[in-house]
Write a structure and sequence with these properties.
Layout lengths: L5 H13 L3 E6 L4 E4 L1 H7 L7 H6 L9 H8 L3 E6 L5 E10 L5 E10 L1 H23 L3 E6 L2 E5 L1 H7 L3 H5 L11 H15 L7 E7 L5 E13 L2 E10 L1 H23 L3 E6 L2 E5 L1 H6 L19 H17 L3 E9 L5 E13 L2 E10 L1 H46 L7 H25 L8 E3 L1 H16 L3 E6 L7 E3 L1 H17 L5 E12 L1 H5 L7 E10 L6 H4 L19 H11 L3 E6 L5 E8 L23 E5 L3 H13 L3 E5 L2 H11 L5 E5 L7 H7 L8 E6 L3 H6 L9 E3 L4 H12 L7
Parallel strand pairs: 17-19, 23-24, 23-25, 25-26, 26-27
Antiparallel strand pairs: 1-2, 1-5, 3-4, 4-5, 6-7, 6-10, 8-9, 9-10, 11-12, 11-15, 13-14, 14-15, 16-18, 19-20, 20-22, 21-22
Helix pairs in contact: 12-13, 12-19, 13-18, 14-15, 15-18, 19-23, 20-21
Amino acid sequence: MLLPEKDQLHSLMAGLSRIGLGIDIVGVDYRVFFQNQYLKDRFGDLAGKLCYENYLGLTEPCDCCPMVAAVKNNRVEFAELVSSDGRHYEVSSAPLPNPDGTVNKAIEVIRDITEKKRMEKELRESEVKFRNLIEQSDDAIYMLFDGKFEIINRKFSEFAGVTPEEVRAEGFDFMELVAPRSRQLIEERVRMTKRGETPPPRYEFTALTRDGREIAVEASVTNIDYRGGTAVLGILRDITKRKQAEKSLRESEEQHRQLLDLIPVAIIVHSEGLIVYVNPAALEMMRAGNPEDLVGKPVLEFIHTEHRDAAERRIADALTEGRKALAVEEKMIALDGTILTAEVTTVPFEYMGKPAVQMVIRDITNYKKLEDQFRQAQKMEAVGKLAGGVAHDFNNLLTVISGTVELMMMSLNKDDPLVSDLEEVMKASQRAAQLTGQLLAFSRRQTLQPKVLNVNSILLNLEKMLQRIIGEDIIFETFYADDLKHTRIDPGQFEQIILNLTVNARDAMPNGGSLIIETMNIELTEEYCATHHEVKPGDYVMVSVSDSGCGMTDEVKSQIFDPFFSTKAKGEGTGLGLSTVFGIVKQSDGFIYVYSEPGKGTTFKIYLPWFEGEEESLELRTVSDESLRGDETVLVVEDEEGVRHIAVRSLEKFGYRVIEAENGGAGYLKCRKLGGQVDLVVTDVVMPDMDGAEFVESIREFCPDTKVLYMSGYTYNVIARKGIVDSELSFIQKPFDPLALVRKVREALGKAGQRG
């Protein structure tokens, strides 16, 4: 063995020390002759000392000492030695010949491989853990290296339906695991790899097991360094159940969506403040053409400002506390600006993996209108009953007052100074009678004389009068339907309706404007009736009166039909004009509605039912010119003493033989006593115990030919309910004056064969 020169040797030793290698020369007696600086730094200067004691901490040399073997065998020997403190050394020993050719020393290269050993141990343990992890995984794991399966786990073997040996065998192709429908996908990934492109690491395909089953697979593929090359590590996860669950979920969501699409209640779902779903009912309610008109927009944008803060608090409670809000009433704004009254229930839930709120909305706008109309109708009914009762009682008093005054005037000379005073009393009673007439009209308790007619003919006759009423600064236009159907209404009362509406229109246009009266045939549908209380579907004659005046607020509109309500200055109106119109229309089985906004004028629409039949003549019956005096026997049946007294005095003054009875029972007894000697019965319609109709029926067996004159302060409808429905009956409306009563009596006695 040739040794380098001394300087070269020192240089070599220094270099080996720097790279962490120990160099020494040891004799066959294990004593150290030489150390490089690395060994001196680690173990101290060991010249002449035993190497195994100082290097390894041993008390005697180990059997595997490479130095002895190198000297003995005259060759390089290798060994790994472990010190007493557990450190590992890799030792290479070469024989070092003496000048005479003998060998009793060896030169050693010593490397501390303790850290390497530790790392190798950890690597082995890691590999064991890795393999155990792979083996225990529920996913199929494989590693391909150089086109062959290098690693497969138990799950992969089960997944492929083959043993590990079969998978590792030559000729097993990954494509055998791929169903035909997914082979094109895998082949494209292979082509991408060959082109130097990197396919997406995660993909899904359909696998084919050995028993012919197709399963859905999620694959994750990555490249790793392995044995100086690149291996492919793949993880295959069976997602068949997940796919089935996703399919079921999609089907369930689709069914849920279809259900939401079908239900008539509006559903709006919003998440993070933005609308994410609306059903068709919500589109219709919000006047939207398609979902894109609403989806993506802030939900609070469609809540009216007066309810927005409260709605925001409910949404926050729903999201943070999961609190469901019971139905609350709030206003919403549709896309076209319409203000809706809605009943909203707020329900928290999860939508597309995010916290969301479902708003279940019921549009109650029409319901609220109906509710207001119903309350108004109840109010009008209650006020009407009160007004009708007051008017009826007042009529009886007026009958006594006016009858007494007229009888007094009949007994006085025209020059008597009392006559002028009594005339003033008579005028006052007449004005009071007009007032009670208006109250009876509102309460629908006046007596009507309805006729089948075409209202166009009445309107044509009124046009000149209406033009005079409104004046020259108001443009008056009419539009009458040529084919207008007939209706059934009292012509005089219909005139009253038009006059009252015309006067109101005139007063609403102090600076001029336009007045339009229009008639047409119209059908009121179920949809219209659903939003208008008490209206029945069917065919109607519509009469509208429109003005371009100041209009009305909602508050005023809610009161215009109330008796004594007026927007006019004190002393300029009684407040009974529109209440009279309302009562006449209702009593004629019709409906009236008003449409008005401040500054935009007013339109009153009156709907009267069609009536099949020939138009009746509008000529009024005239009183007979024959003498009003008579000597017939008349029975007056009236429970109100004052009225009965006036009737008796009036008839006696004209020569009639009068018998009086305070009620139906007393009248029955007197008729029975007189038999057929009673020529005429004058009876009140409504009386306690036995009403007028019952009384008349009770006397027919012994007074079959006795004629009847009914009197009442109540309406035609009340008379009809009492069984008196013949329009040709003799009837006189309270209050009446003595001459009017005598004329009616004479007229009734002159109607041969009529018994009422």
